[in-house]
Every structure is written in C-alpha cells, then in structure tokens.
Design a protein that fits this description.
flat; 4 helices
Length: about 120
C-alpha cells in the first residue's frame, strides 16, 4: 500500500510541476516545440494518475471514508477555484467560456455519479 501511495504522490507531483511549467504566460523560458512536448508528456502523466485513481480500492470502512473525503475536498476545491476565476474574469468582462463549461461538467458528473451509485449500490 505504501508503495502505491508513493507512486501516486510522485505522479501527482510530476503532473503539478508540468502544469506550472506549461502555464508560462509570458513565454520566457520555453520555445513552442518544448511547450508542445510538455503538453504531450502532461497528457501521459495525467493518464497515469487517472489509472491510479481508477484502480484504487477501499479494503475497509476507514479507507472508504478517506476516499470520500478526498473526493469531496477535491471537488469543492476545484469548484471554488473555478468560481473564483469566473468572478474575477467577469469583473473585467473577459469571461472565458471554458471556466463555465468545466464547472458545468464537474457539477453534472457529480450529480450523475451520485444518482448512479444511489440506484446501483
């Protein structure tokens, strides 16, 4: 279990580092080809992280509770960040539709997963 946790943490850290490097808003340190390469690597690393998330399983109630708490925390943090971005961009009249779209997709996925699990489990 500790080995899987370390691997998941390492993949998460690599993904965060890549995303911060990709942000590079003023194009100070990356030529376009390196930027595209990093985007491709980011997709692969996200796929690895998704595989860890999909394969994890709870053995007992305590682990199940920890997974639910982590999922709720991630959902609320993501939605709060998106709402802050929407409010900030709306204030300057430059709202990027992707922020709204991602927020709608997150909320719909949460509701759909909840209805599915209530009906089938």
């Amino acid at each position: 279990m500790a080995n899987n946790t370390f691997s998941e943490g390492a993949v998460s850290a690599i993904l965060v580092i890549l995303l911060v490097a990709i942000a590079n808003p003023y194009h100070l340190w990356m030529p376009n080809m390196l930027h595209l390469t990093m985007l491709a690597i980011t997709l692969v690393v996200f796929g690895l992280l998704a595989a860890f998330v999909l394969r994890e399983g709870a053995v007992d109630e305590r682990e199940s509770t920890h997974r639910m708490l982590a999922g709720r925390t991630a959902f609320l943090t993501g939605t709060a960040t998106l709402i802050a971005g929407i409010v900030y961009q709306s204030y300057f009249d430059i709202l990027d539709i992707w922020l709204v779209l991602v927020l709608v997709v997150m909320v719909m996925a949460k509701i759909t997963a909840r209805f599915y699990s209530d009906r089938n489990y």
